[in-house]
Amino acid sequence: MKTTNATHQIQTIAQIQAVLANERSLGRSIGFVPTMGALHEGHLSLIEQARKDHDVVVVSIFVNPLQFGEGEDFETYPRDIHKDQETCQEAGVDYVFYPSVEEMYPDVASVELKVVQGVDVLCGKSRPGHFDGMATVVLKLFHIIQPDTAYFGQKDAQQVAVVKQMVKTLAVPVSIHACPTVRESDGLAKSSRNVYLTAEERKQAPMLYQSLLDVKPLALSGAQRDELISFVRDRISTISSGEIDYVDVLSYPKLEAEASLSGTIIIALAYQFSRARLIDHILIEV
């Protein structure tokens, strides 16, 4: 990765558009990593891939209020802009774009983006409006940055599916690159919310991914959707703290429930610990 040049830190839309227009005029390609900050190794894997693929790497850091519902953790979502900027510098990022809420949403919106496919399942089922807010900010960032490629973590599989479908539907000239989930040594998916786990919850959290690994042979043997859901629920119900939010099995990326499984399927779960809601999944070809 490039680590020699200074990372430029930009807070306004006008300035980031100006500097990137100049980069494009010089024939340089742009890789873009949209984030909400609290950067960890998962984000670094996206930055590293963008660094390999493109001349210029842009990271946005913006905690988007539109994708947080009532009672969710917008106010307490982990924020450490100085640490994130240092991380970007070390990773060879060229530009960090970290606008304020007022910069991104200066007026009452005259247009609302509504996602109508793949949002009434998984995280979208219990978070109405979440993917409308996510799609709105991602589309706005695409217009601002105008990247050649945008990089997302496959860990947020529903988000990746929604973004890919949005780009296809609206003919947005951006390639979407989904990078593999980055995990701790015990299998727990890296997440900004892992810091909220108690010591005991952290010990039990790897059971989420292990349950998905355990169900894979059953899925490959031709088991039906309900059987797979029951298997995973039984496995993670042994966790002594917290509760299951959902376990589901759907086609991917359309995210449709089908009794007879074929092609690519996603087996996904969400689990609510005391202060952290964790998600995980596996994709399987059946």
Automatic annotation (TrEMBL):
<keyword id="KW-0067">ATP-binding</keyword>
<feature type="binding site">
    <location>
        <begin position="190"/>
        <end position="193"/>
    </location>
    <ligand>
        <name>ATP</name>
    </ligand>
</feature>
<feature type="binding site">
    <location>
        <begin position="36"/>
        <end position="43"/>
    </location>
    <ligand>
        <name>ATP</name>
    </ligand>
</feature>
<keyword id="KW-0566">Pantothenate biosynthesis</keyword>
<dbReference type="InterPro" id="IPR003721">
    <property type="entry name" value="Pantoate_ligase"/>
</dbReference>
<feature type="binding site">
    <location>
        <position position="182"/>
    </location>
    <ligand>
        <name>ATP</name>
    </ligand>
</feature>
<feature type="active site" description="Proton donor">
    <location>
        <position position="43"/>
    </location>
</feature>
<dbReference type="InterPro" id="IPR042176">
    <property type="entry name" value="Pantoate_ligase_C"/>
</dbReference>
<feature type="binding site">
    <location>
        <position position="159"/>
    </location>
    <ligand>
        <name>(R)-pantoate</name>
    </ligand>
</feature>
<comment type="subunit">
    <text>Homodimer.</text>
</comment>
<dbReference type="InterPro" id="IPR014729">
    <property type="entry name" value="Rossmann-like_a/b/a_fold"/>
</dbReference>
<keyword id="KW-0436">Ligase</keyword>
<protein>
    <recommendedName>
        <fullName>Pantothenate synthetase</fullName>
        <ecNumber>6.3.2.1</ecNumber>
    </recommendedName>
</protein>
<comment type="similarity">
    <text>Belongs to the pantothenate synthetase family.</text>
</comment>
<dbReference type="GO" id="GO:0004592">
    <property type="term" value="F:pantoate-beta-alanine ligase activity"/>
</dbReference>
<feature type="binding site">
    <location>
        <position position="67"/>
    </location>
    <ligand>
        <name>(R)-pantoate</name>
    </ligand>
</feature>
<dbReference type="InterPro" id="IPR004821">
    <property type="entry name" value="Cyt_trans-like"/>
</dbReference>
<feature type="binding site">
    <location>
        <begin position="153"/>
        <end position="156"/>
    </location>
    <ligand>
        <name>ATP</name>
    </ligand>
</feature>
<feature type="binding site">
    <location>
        <position position="67"/>
    </location>
    <ligand>
        <name>beta-alanine</name>
    </ligand>
</feature>
<comment type="function">
    <text>Catalyzes the condensation of pantoate with beta-alanine in an ATP-dependent reaction via a pantoyl-adenylate intermediate.</text>
</comment>
<keyword id="KW-0963">Cytoplasm</keyword>
<dbReference type="Pfam" id="PF02569">
    <property type="entry name" value="Pantoate_ligase"/>
</dbReference>
<keyword id="KW-0547">Nucleotide-binding</keyword>
<comment type="pathway">
    <text>Cofactor biosynthesis; (R)-pantothenate biosynthesis; (R)-pantothenate from (R)-pantoate and beta-alanine: step 1/1.</text>
</comment>
